Amino acid sequence: MRVIAGKFRSRTLKALPGLATRPTYDRLKETLFNVLGELQGAVFIDLFAGTGSIGIEALSRGAVQVYFVESNPKAARLIRDNLAALGIAEGFEILQLPAAKALCQLDARKLRCNYCFLDPPYQMQGAYQEALRVLAASDLLAEDAIIIAEHDKHFDPGNGMDALKRYRLLRQGESALSFYARGSVGGADEAKLPHQPN
Predict the structure, then answer these.
(1) Residue 176, SS3 per DSSP
(2) How far is CA 106 from CA 28, 53, 133, 180, in A?
């Protein structure tokens, strides 16, 4: 597992043995960040962060602050180790909390994020709707914020929650990425969405 691009390009990251953290594989990660485009100055939330691979990629590509949310103590320690190995000492916070609780805590701090990535263990299917529900009800999202859910291609996390609507679904191998934003494709917010290559 490696950093794809940016400041820490080609640097390797450690993963926990077994499937406990199921890292996003490189090709899917590359697709994700190609869709998101420029991250310079962005605030990024990495829910169910696992190894921290996605959040570290965001930092490598210019995100100014990344919040790693991971309730598993071993995985949270691994994120710290991966950050330390890359010499990253600032621009991040690790919240060792369940995802919904962490989101509520960040909302209470008046945080505004530009991107939120969620990748719960695939068997935790209810975690997708719970996270989307909390995000939709919070003030966490900047006006043009994008939420991305990684999931099994055979599972549909839904078309959205309240004002959050899915505007794109990408399938790659056995995995898929669902992209959500306020409004819907064809609506007033479409121009605010990131460039979407074919």
Answers:
(1) strand
(2) 28, 21, 15, 20
Give me the CATH number covering residue 33. Answer: 3.40.50.150
Domain contains 194: no
For residue 69, tell me if it sits in a domain: yes
Give the DSSP letter string of 57-104. HHHHTT-SEEEEE---HHHHHHHHHHHHHTT--SSEEEE-S-HHHHHH
Residue 19 lies in a domain: no
Q: How far apart are CA 48 and CA 75, in angstroms?
A: 10
Element (H, E) at 105: helix 99-108
Q: What is the spatial distance between Cα 77 and Cα 70, in angstroms, rounded to a whole number?
A: 10
Token pair belonging to 1: 């597992």
| Residue 85 CB-density burial (10 A; 0-12 exposed, 13-18 middle, 19+ buried) | middle
pLDDT score of 10: 72
Whether pTM > 0.85 for this model: the answer is yes
Domain coverage including residue 71: 26-155+164-182
Tens digits of residue pLDDT in 12-69: 888 877 645 456 678 899 999 999 988 999 999 999 999 999 999 999 999 999 999 9
Half-sphere exposure of 110 (CA within 13 A, CB side): 0
Residue 113 located in a structural domain: yes
Tokens representing residue 194 in the block? 């990131």
**193: pLDDT strictly greater than 50:** no
Count the domains in the chain: 1
